[in-house]
Amino acid sequence: MVKYFININYNKTEKIFMKPETSVFENSRLAAQAVASRILEQAIAKQKQSQILNLAVSGGSTPKQLFALLAEDNFRTQIPWEIVRFFWVDERCVEPAHPESNFGMTYDALLQFAFVPAQNIFRMKGEDIPANEAVRYANLLHRELPARNGFPVFDIILLGIGDDGHTASIFPNNMELLNSEKFVDVATHPISGQKRITLTGKTINNADQVIFLVTGINKSGIVREIITETMDAKKYPAAHAGNYLGIAEFVMDAAAAGKI
Ligand code: 6PG
To answer: What is the sign, positive or negative, of the torsion defined by CA atoms of 215, 217, 219, 225?
Structure first.
């Protein structure tokens, strides 16, 4: 896949410098604010066209700050939530009330405030049999989303990067999920053995926009390897993620971008 990166011009918030492939912000709040601004802009644009915004979000800890920002008055009162639909990039195979649930984290930080209509929330059911849920969710995506090249199309997919270079729940020892013909598949965490439901690489790479939100100094090493496309970069699943044009947008704080 030919990969290139585009500049992200968030002129609403301070940014300390722009690398050819990324936008870097002084701190994690400003980085999250830039992504929140993108969601706001896209949602309003869709609303003007009487369309909906299909958004797939990742879990982990990084998005918490973004979700908290979206719940703050400034964004909460401006976003036309009735046209924003929430899907998940991946989910741990646990109950939604479990502390490791990605849906649970999103609910606590954002969805509990009830301004997102219940019918706009399409959670992965981590509590169900993984193989069955992967099929159910794939069928749901087939039903609910437009298609391109035989795969569902999200307007925006928000991704994170693990220290090992995974993204979604596609881990370095599971690279075949990048090219699976399935929309959704079952993954296994390489250390804990925990089962995960995850969008596959082809579903992710079929999106209109793929935005990595990456913050914190512990990500600076993997970010350097991927952004500077070192020889090792190709072994990281995150290095293979981009939109249908091969574009991956990186929004980071200075700590995560400290080595590029
Ligand atoms: C998950 C996520 C995963 C996450 C990375 C980064 O289920 O854990 O979808 O892909 O984005 O592991 O996680 P942090 O944001 O916690 O560093």
So the answer is: positive
CATH code where residue 94 lies: 3.40.50.1360
Residues with CB under 6 A from ligand 1: 58-62, 89-90, 102, 160-162, 166-169
pTM as predicted: 0.92
pLDDT in tens, 195-239: 999 999 999 999 999 999 999 999 999 999 998 877 788 899 999
- Measured at the CA of 172, the angle between CA 167 and CA 178, to 5 degrees, comes to 65
**Distance, CA of 23 to CA of 206 (rounded, Å):** 23
Query: What pLDDT does residue 219 have?
Result: 97
Query: Quick check: is 196 in a domain?
Result: yes
Nearest CA to ligand 1 atom 11: 160
Please give the residue range of the domain that contains residue 74.
23-166+174-200+228-240
219 assigned to some structural domain? no
- Nearest one of 119, 131, 127, 134 to 83, comparing CA atoms: 119
Q: How far apart are CA 142 and CA 223, in angstroms?
A: 33
Taking only the tens place, the pLDDT of each residue in 82-124 is 999 999 999 999 999 999 999 999 999 999 986 899 999 999 9
Count the domains in the chain. 1
From 18, 22, 30, 27, select the one nearest 6 (Cα to Cα).
Answer: 22
